[in-house]
Automatic annotation (TrEMBL):
GO terms for biological process: fatty acid beta-oxidation. One of its GO terms (molecular function) is delta(3)-delta(2)-enoyl-CoA isomerase activity. This is Related to enoyl-CoA hydratase/isomerase. GO terms for cellular component: peroxisome. It comes from the Eukaryota. Residues 245-266 are annotated as: Disordered. InterPro entries: ClpP/crotonase-like_dom_sf, Enoyl-CoA_hydra/iso. Pfam families: ECH_1.
Length: 266
């Protein structure tokens, strides 16, 4: 297996940083391995390094298939560091996370997330922005647990699941915070196969993905397929959805106050 490059993830706050390394397990199949202990949290430096790795691969190597995984045996990614996000908003959304999601959604070659461990919240979103997913059968859950810790899903974070998954699966993820082990995740349509790197390579072969980037339209086809999510990820879409979210919260507070006054009169 040849190493093509390694990109550092800069340390920030309590996160020690890490690396993203690109290797080639097979000709024109690129394995991007993320290592940011202890659990591959999506911080600003994490997003910047992954975006740089994707861009470098795109412009320095022949088109092929990208497989993204983690070097950490327990975690694919444990999601966002909420304190980091809060202290860096709105810059984090517009300059770190959304550009990364845009790059993945429009990436000009097939992408496969090899989910080797837990993929929680934004960690599962990171996998969902890939074209295909393969999940470790022995370890890890796929889960959106925002409902359990009281966090809202911003528009593209929700719509990517709505556009890619069956309605019943979408409901279980968002409203129930259900944890899906690998086999249940496959049955629910969250992942396409169960296994490790060999199964990911088998999926590439079975789906005949290796030559799909040669036509030059793979990324454009995806933008059209997932046009709602693509629109939400734009700067204009972000501003519109932020205003809508604030309006919804204000109306909910107003309705709650009105209901309390009505109850007090009973």
């Amino acid at each position: 297996m040849t190493t093509l490059f390694t990109i550092p993830i800069e340390p920030i706050d309590a996160h020690p940083g890490g690396t993203i390394t690109l290797t080639t397990p097979s000709p024109k199949i690129y394995l991007l391995t993320i290592s940011s202990p202890p659990d591959n949290r999506l911080t600003t430096p994490f997003c910047a390094a992954l975006l740089k790795a994707l861009t470098t691969l795109q412009h320095t190597q022949p088109p092929g298939v990208l497989v993204t995984t983690s070097s950490l045996p327990k975690f694919f990614s444990n999601g966002l560091d909420l304190s980091h996000v809060t202290s860096n908003a709105p810059h984090f959304w517009t300059s770190a996370l959304y550009p990364l999601f845009r790059k993945l959604l429009s990436y000009p070659m097939p992408t496969v997330a090899l989910v080797n461990g837990h993929a929680f919240a934004a960690g599962l979103m990171l996998a969902m922005f890939h074209d295909y997913r393969v999940m470790n059968p022995a370890r890890g859950f796929a889960c959106l647990n925002e409902v359990d810790f009281g966090a809202l899903l911003k528009a593209p974070m929700s719509s990517v699941f709505r556009e890619k998954l069956p309605p019943a699966t979408y409901r279980s993820l968002v409203l129930e915070g259900r944890r899906f082990p690998a086999e249940q995740a496959r049955e629910a349509g969250i992942v396409d196969a169960v296994g490790g790197l060999q199964e990911a390579l088998a999926l590439v072969e079975e789906r005949k993905l290796l030559g799909k980037a040669a036509g030059g339209v793979w990324g454009l086809l995806k933008v059209e397929m997932y046009r709602e999510t693509w629109g939400f990820l734009s700067d204009e879409g972000f501003e519109v959805e932020e205003a809508r979210e604030k309006g919804n919260m204000a109306r909910e507070e107003e309705d709650g106050a009105t209901e309390k006054k009505a109850l007090a009169k009973l």
